[in-house]
Amino acid sequence: VWIEVDTDGHRSGIMPEQDTLLAVGRILHDNGIDVGGVMTHAGASYELNTREALVALAEQERAGCVRAAERLRAAGIPCANVSVGSTPTALSAERLDGVTEVRAGVYVFFDLVMHNVGVCSLDDIALSVVTTVIGHQPEKGWVVVDAGWMAMSRDRGTSRQTRDFGYGQPCTLDGTPLDGYLLADANQEHGILSATARKSGATARIDDVVTRFPIGTKLRILPNHACATGAQFSEYHALAAAGELATWRRFGGW
Amino acid sequence: VWIEVDTDGHRSGIMPEQDTLLAVGRILHDNGIDVGGVMTHAGASYELNTREALVALAEQERAGCVRAAERLRAAGIPCANVSVGSTPTALSAERLDGVTEVRAGVYVFFDLVMHNVGVCSLDDIALSVVTTVIGHQPEKGWVVVDAGWMAMSRDRGTSRQTRDFGYGQPCTLDGTPLDGYLLADANQEHGILSATARKSGATARIDDVVTRFPIGTKLRILPNHACATGAQFSEYHALAAAGELATWRRFGGW
Question: Taking CB atoms and an 8 Å cutoff, what residues of chain A touch B167?
Fold first, then answer.
């Protein structure tokens, strides 16, 4: 059994200095159950967006989790492992003294939330949804695509960040971001692509969506949250550098 | 080929009186392609919550779609079918003259959004997620359960309605709603159950969550949006009146 430690007040676990930590460790140990280690996840890092704040939280996560292990050991309870997590802190930690495991998930793909946190560039994002233009509402400046929230997920993680990407960043099929366009809204099976700003050049921009994105145009949408978008599908289509396509079944559930 | 008609300005399709309708019908017909019918989906009905408004939109949907078919027929383009949709209008239509098909989806399960629209009671909701209490944060009044948004989906459809159910309405395992409690927030794998109001009886309520919901307690959560929640799973566990459980594989995709 591992003991979850709360190092940032974000979610669940026992705080490193709480009496409960030793009480739980003692109950396990005295009943012949091995304490495998302590683990934490500094999920509050998702709300940050400066290098300084991320470095500080990574150190708080490390120090708190190591401290919990040391308290258990000092009380005579063996605690071999110290596991820390979260993609932003994993990529910002300046030291990992005392840590035996780093669990980071979304870093394998990255996404627009991580881009806003500041730990990846748009070009680093390795998961996207291919979609097709299926209609227009020229008066509204809308391009209707066949990727709604059933494709992108309902995740609107960037809505609370400095740059709101709507339901995703549209790109050409080769992955080049379409600057000035957004998947602005989504229904279950329909996505609404539109221009992000409509100031002086408004009319031109609205006409532009029909001529620029004719029916049948294939686009690629970068997701707010790779975990949520991935979970909408049963498999990945993995594209190798040379262009070959492999199909990878996804693990579902949690 | 069917022609999509826009009867409520909500999403996609051609408006019944637009010249484009006949132009599209003509191109299809003159090229030997059968126009199977006209179809519409009055999705704007999700934003209503009075019987009068729903009845009016159902009639607008019916009349607009029938009108589109009549215009095509008058122009010599056969159009056999008239298909209307949306759960709230399907349940509110007072007449269906000229309609050959009604497509309603979420009405097979219902959900909290439909409850707020006013077309079902909480007791009508036939889809729920069973979850287990896995922790507490007593100072915050939180019960941590193992149904986060990966279980419930990210859908927050009730946030724009008169009653916000957070990420879902907790119930006892037998389906009785726990009045005064909410799945107030959700992380990927963790849900946060808490009391909805904390006025005078604040402290009592916060202590209450630990004693009332001990670790291991099984609860049932009613979802905001049955379509979104269902899509998070690969199968349904269907419960018969006599208690037998059947496993139904889900269709995935769209």
Answer: none
pLDDT tens by residue, A164-190: 999 999 999 999 999 999 999 999 999
- Which pLDDT value is given to residue A199? 47
Residue window 174-203, chain A: list those with CB within 8 Å of chain B. 187-190
Q: State whether residue B139 sits within 8 Å of chain A by CB.
A: no
Is the model's pLDDT at B253 over the cut of 90?
no
Residues A12, B227: C-beta atoms closer than 8 Å: no
Q: Give chain B as a 3 state SS string.
A: CEEEECCCCCCCCECCCCHHHHHHHHHHHHCCCCCCEEECCCHHHHHCCCHHHHHHHHHHHHHHHHHHHHHHHHCCCCCCEEEEECHHHHCCCCCCCCCCEEECCHHHCCCHHHHHHCCCCHHHCCCCEEEEEEEEEHHHCEEEECCCHHHHCCCCHHHHCCCCCECCEEEECCCCECCCEEEEEECCCCEEEEECCCCCCHHHHHHHHHHHCCCCCEEEEECCCHHHHHCCCCEEEEECCCCCEEEEECCCCC
Decide if A228 and B144 are in contact by the 8 Å CB cutoff. Answer: no
Enumerate the residues of chain A whose CB falls inside 8 A of the CB of residue B153: 153-154
- For chain B, say whether A211 makes contact (Cβ under 8 Å): no
Q: Identify the segments of chain A with pLDDT beneath 70.
A: 197-207
DSSP string covering A52-79: HHHHHHHHHHHHHHHHHHHHHHHTT---
pLDDT one-digit tens code per residue, B174-200 = 999 999 999 999 999 999 999 986 544
* Sign, CA torsion A1/A86/A254/A16: positive
Decide if B12 and A254 are in contact by the 8 Å CB cutoff.
no
